[in-house]
Amino acid sequence: MNQRIPITLVFTLFLALTANCASQADANFQLPGQALAPGVFQLRELDLHLHSGMERPVDLQSWIDLAVADGRKVILLLDHLELYRKTPEQYATWREKGKFQAQYPVGPEGHKALYADFDSVASRKDVLIFKGWEVSEDELDTGLEMAPLRMADAIGFHISPRNGSTPPNGQTLLKRVRQIKELQKQLPIPMILFHPFPMRIENLQRTAKAKGRDPAKIAVKEYRFFRPGEQQDLILLLKGSSIYIEMNRDTEHYFDDPVCREAFIADILPLAKAGVQFTVSTDNHHLAAAKKPFTPTHYCGPTGVTPACCNTIVRELMALRARRLLTENAARPQVER
Ligand SMILES: [Zn+2]
Ligand SMILES: [Zn+2]
């Protein structure tokens, strides 16, 4: 029998099952347990990707103060893991050039020092703090440094624009999701695909400029991240997983261009309608960005990425934290409880 038939049948059944959800999503359907307004963090209250390590321009408390002043209530503090692989000499030169306030040792001592700083701000009463790393997607191919990853509450994989090479596309995400699912068998924590969509646009626009082509001539079809069938494959892979897709602030650089906007909506809206879960983030590194109001609704609204889509990871992080506390309590002698 032709192998395509059962796959098509399975997918048709899946569509039939999800069609109800999709149409309800159109009517502002809310996920169970997300109907109480105070029980859902609004998009601008969330930042699941705030660079707070070696590239930090001010002390950590002041850095978080800036985010809180703009309304943040939940933050995943993180740093690029590969920065800790510099030699002490490379680090000193790089730090001097970047005029960073932060200073950490390189290697495992740096991981510990950074996370000790993150722990020191976790007692803040005005914001929920979680700890993470941003890891290059290439490390899913070449091998991961597991010790620092095991210290994290959540991990984001940097989907690269691959400037000068093939830009990220649907196959990139499908491959990374399969690899992350394998990784989560050893490390059961939430994982995020960082900024896939704007990275493709960045690559295409830079390539066009480098080749003397007007970026305004790039068509929606060329910007489109997914080819036919890939969104359905991704939806099936992500369904019920603890893997999230990030809408980072880079999106706003492109969203007001009607061609980019059309591609973003065609790529993202069907995912959101089918129940794919997202995160929002500033991906802030610099003071100027940290002082600018964060307005994710501008590009999340039209692409169907609602607060409900972005609260699942918060609920999961809170549940994991609560479970860890219960385990720690259970391990204490009875008299101390
Ligand atoms: Zn990144
Ligand atoms: Zn980043």
Q: In short, what is this structure?
A:
The protein is built from 15 helices and 7 strands.
Mean pLDDT: 92
First-residue to last-residue Cα separation: 64 Å
Count of helices? 15
Q: Radius of gyration, rounded?
A: 21 Å
Beta-strand portion reads 5-15%
Low-confidence stretches: 1-5, 7-28
Helix content: 40-55%
**CATH architecture descriptor text:** Alpha-Beta Barrel
> Can you write the helix and strand succession as a string?
HEHEHHEHHEHEHHHEHHEHHH
Oligomeric form of this entry? single chain
Small-molecule binders here are: zinc ion
Q: Major beta sheet, specifics?
A: 7 strands, parallel
Spatial strand order of the main sheet: 1-2-3-4-5-6-7
The CATH H-level superfamily is Metal-dependent hydrolases
Q: How many runs of DSSP E, i.e. beta strands? A: 7
- What is the 3D form? globular
Find the CATH topology.
TIM Barrel
CATH class: Alpha Beta
Please outline the helices and strands.
Layout lengths: L3 H23 L19 E6 L8 H10 L4 E5 L9 H11 L9 H14 L6 E9 L2 H4 L3 H4 L4 E5 L11 H17 L4 E4 L1 H15 L9 H4 L6 H9 L4 E6 L3 H4 L2 H16 L4 E4 L5 H4 L6 H4 L6 H25 L6
Parallel strand pairs: 1-2, 2-3, 3-4, 4-5, 5-6, 6-7
The structure holds zinc ion (2 copies).
Can you characterise this structure?
The protein has one domain (41-319): TIM Barrel (Alpha-Beta Barrel), CATH 3.20.20.140. It has 337 residues and is of the alpha/beta class. The protein has helices at residues 4-26, 60-69, 88-98, 108-121, 139-142, 146-149, 170-186, 196-210, 220-223, 230-238, 252-255, 258-273, 287-290, 297-300, 307-331; strands at 46-51, 74-78, 128-136, 154-158, 191-194, 243-248, 278-281. The longest helix has 25 residues, at 307-331. The chain is globular and about 70 Å long. It is built from 15 helices and seven strands. α7 (170-186) links the parallel β4 and β5 (191-194). Residues 1-5 and 7-28 have low confidence and may be disordered. The protein starts with a helix and ends in a 6-residue tail after the last helix. Helices cover 49% and strands 12% of the residues. Strands 1-2-3-4-5-6-7 form a seven-stranded parallel beta sheet. It binds zinc ion (ZN) (2 copies).
